[in-house]
Specification:
The structure is a homodimer of 97-residue chains.
Chain A (H helix, E strand, L loop, with lengths): L2 H8 L2 H9 L3 H4 L11 E2 L10 H13 L3 E6 L2 E6 L1 H14 L1
Antiparallel strand pairs in A: 1-3, 2-3
Chain A binds a DNA duplex (30 and 30 nucleotides) through helix 4.
Chain lengths: 97, 97
DNA sequence: TCCATATATCGGGAAAATCCGATTTATACT
DNA sequence: AGTATAAATCGGATTTTCCCGATATATGGA
């Protein structure tokens, strides 16, 4: 759990949006045809107006920071919030800051 | 209270250090001759190894984000943590994130 | 094997962040 | 007025971030 890396990951509106959208997949990704238990399909995030490669980079940043988990299912990769890391980060920040 | 601006301000090790040092001025700034009730004199932060202009810019960033307050006393400017904003930010982040 | 789809990576351009030394501004003291 | 100290701002070099289109890689199905 690298606090600095997480702070950098959060210090970007697009990535913060992604994390927030993942709190309510049903609401924010109504076009997804896969069940939401698997998570949200990477391509769904292109709805923010950014290109596929940019979205992929943002998801990579969030994943490297430990804020999301990913799981390949066939040709798709599904993302979920990593609530454990998020909670641990908030706890540490509350203590440190 | 601009959450994004605060996150950007926190996403830098030097600025995070400054905020942390301000929690225990007596311990981290033993060379200060002014009473700590006024806060910590700007020049004290040059102990992090950065130049005067760079330290000034970091303090400006923290101040613009509302994370510290400043008060001019004579030719010096003293800085303190802004606990209200810090607490409000933590609360909002815990709710939003 | 060949093609379609999904994602990652590459290469590069634009913008923002970081840092410094030099200068300017503000205050204090003589 | 003249000097000294503290802090902000300027100008510029370097690094990092952000974004894109193009290409590479991975998987699935015909």
């Amino acid at each position: 759990m690298d606090k600095d890396e997480i702070l950098k990951a959060l210090a970007n509106p697009a990535r913060m949006d992604i994390l927030n959208w993942l709190k309510n997949p049903e609401e924010h990704f109504p076009t997804q045809e896969h069940p939401f238990e698997m998570g949200v399909c990477a391509s769904q995030f292109e709805r923010c107006g950014l290109s596929q490669s940019t979205v992929s980079a943002h998801l990579g940043t969030l994943h490297r920071a430990g804020l999301v988990t990913s799981k390949r299912v066939g040709q798709w990769i599904f993302y979920k919030r990593n609530e454990e890391t998020i909670a641990a980060f908030l706890q540490q920040l509350t203590q440190d800051l």
